[in-house]
Amino acid sequence: MYTNASYIMRLKTALTKMGNSQFDSITARCVSNLLAIALIFFSVLSVLHAQTAEQGDIHGTVIDRKLEKPLVSHPVTLTIHKADAVETQETTTDENGNYRFGDLPLDPSVHYTVSTTHDGTDYIEKDLVLSTWVPNIEINFDVGAFTDDNAQILVKSHTFIIGPPPPDHAPDGAVTVAEAIGLENLSHLAFRTEHGSQKVGVHLTLPIGVEGFQPHLSAALTMNPDTNQAVLRTPLPPGESQLGYNYIFHVERDKLDLSRRLNVNTMRFYFFVPEGIGFVPRAKFFGAPKREQIHGTVYLIYESNENKTFAAGETIDLALNVNMRAARGALPTQTSNLGQLILIAVAAALAGGFFVAALFKLRATKNAAEPDTEDTSTPPDAGWLRKLNSDDREHVRVARLEFITHLDDKYEKQEISERVYKRLRREQTERLTTLLEEQKRGNNA
Fold first, then answer.
1. Is the pLDDT of residue 361 over 50?
2. Counting Cβ atoms within 10 Å, is residue 420 exposed (0-12), middle (13-18) or buried (19+)?
3. Partners of 78 in the β-ladder
4. For residue 27, what pLDDT band results from cuts at 50, 70 and 90?
5. Are 131 and 80 members of one domain?
6. Least crowded by CB within 10 Å, which of 13, 313, 342, 384?
């Protein structure tokens, strides 16, 4: 058998005596015929490919692990998430516990969720995508058997990301805290434990004072306000899982205290703190930070000591102190909510209890009972101001000005009474005057 190229060469050799024009004509006809055949061949292949690869399926088996046998005639639901609609299909398992959803479009913009319920527990597999590369997906459900051995659950990483409050939130010392938790179920069975009268996948303690809890991705993750716990309602499957949520939290006095009692053994804690805001972990098991830019924001990343594992039942110090020296990267003219918050928080850390209470409890002043007498005694600042260097004093000056501006704004909006406004403003003006005199003495020295 000859290839097309060798066939054309043989024609050329045999027809040399016929002249170039005759040869060119015959060669052109041969090549044209070959191209036509090739086009027809590839067209047929395309049609066959389209007929066989435009649709896929999701299938699997439902096994009752408690009885070690397949569940027959058991309902399974498919949810189809499209850009403009959500559709559902339902089928039941056959005599071998098998189910199948067929004729599904291979569209990367469409994703699927497969779920079933057994003995009051939901089993869900989310974010499934079919494509020409992966036209078939197998999802098996092992139901009915669980482990409740808490030692089988390990938090490999627990990360805290500090950010500004929502734009519409009052500037009252609030920050947004996002927590990302990487768990591993070391058992071959799904993990389930008791939380009150309910059986849940896992529950994690939150710091006291959480507001506006919002889960990431999983609707099965909720907050129980009675127990102050983040609760995953579905069993925790074998292998690794990711949980996440965010909430609003408030600086109190000179720290952001995120401490809590652990329910699960934990290997590592991380804090992501935007550079320049002056929050530093108080616990000594955090080392020096690493500096990294992520999505345009520079973070100081604090990591707990890799040689220390934190046991379930232990109360962990996760407080962040306001630290003046750590805030030197902040621009004195920054006007973001987070910048204003931290500048004020820095001053609060230096100024003492009354100033802090007036600042971070200001949101409650409108509804709180006001004192009948004025506190005219103001402790002098000169003593601790002399202990600061010129950079620190400049940060305090900016913070004082920010707070006075904040007071003026609150008074104009009639959110505080005139008596409280005058007392706080007089106090801060006197403190600012003391600071300016100290700065002047420092410059003349």
1. no
2. buried
3. 89, 114
4. very low
5. yes
6. 13
Are 68 and 103 members of one domain?
yes
The reply to whether 296 and 231 lie within a common domain is: yes
pLDDT at 22 over 60: no
Short-list 49, 47, 52, 57, CA closest to 130: 57
352 has a pLDDT exceeding 50: no
Question: Domain residues for 36?
Answer: 4-53
Q: Note whether residue 191 is domain-resident.
A: yes
The pLDDT score that the predictor gives to residue 326 is 52
27 φψ region: left (φ > 0), alpha (ψ -120 to 50), beta (else): alpha
Q: Do 215 and 127 fall within a single domain?
A: no
Rounded Cα distance between 287 and 307, Å, is 12
**Is 282 a residue whose pLDDT tops 90?**
yes
Looking at the fold, whether 194 and 243 belong to one and the same domain comes out as: yes
Q: Which amino acid is at 345?
A: A
Q: Is the pLDDT higher at 119 or at 82?
A: 82
Q: Measure the CA angle with vertex 319, ends 315 and 320; round to 5°.
A: 160
Q: What is the pLDDT of residue 324?
A: 52
